[in-house]
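Re: beginner question about structure tokens

> Can someone show what the tokenized structure looks like for a real chain? I only ever see the sequence side.

Sure, here's an example I had lying around. Input first:
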Amino acid sequence: MPGKFVITKTPKGFFRFSLLAANYQTVLTSKNYSSLATCRDGVETIKKNAQAPVEDQTLKNPEVLKYPKYEVYLDNAGKYRFRLLASNGLNIAMAEDGYASKSGCLNGVEAISRASLDATVDESALEQ
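And the corresponding structure tokens:
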């Protein structure tokens, strides 16, 4: 069963999306978008780039990959994080919280990749 992008409108009139895995767990939440059209574009950008390879920047000599790619890195607090960079190098998604282990972080990347593959888009919350 594929994942689902759910587009909602915030109380302040912005649009955002969440990516839900097949088990209905949220694996990604977007930034706020000023219009529905740009929010839809954000969904398409994630769908297009979510299968990108992982560049592990925690290694001593990481292999530098071309865009699009995920970058896995250590933050200042020693937690593992990831960011998804589009084919133009722009950061389009990132881990909201740090992970205690690299395997947990890589599982987060895999969850996004799996959930976005053939994901549907649900805008029904906008009709309420």
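Each token stands for a local structural state, so reading them left to right follows the chain. Strands lie at 4-9, 15-20, 26-29, 54-56, 69-74, 80-85, 91-94, 120-122.
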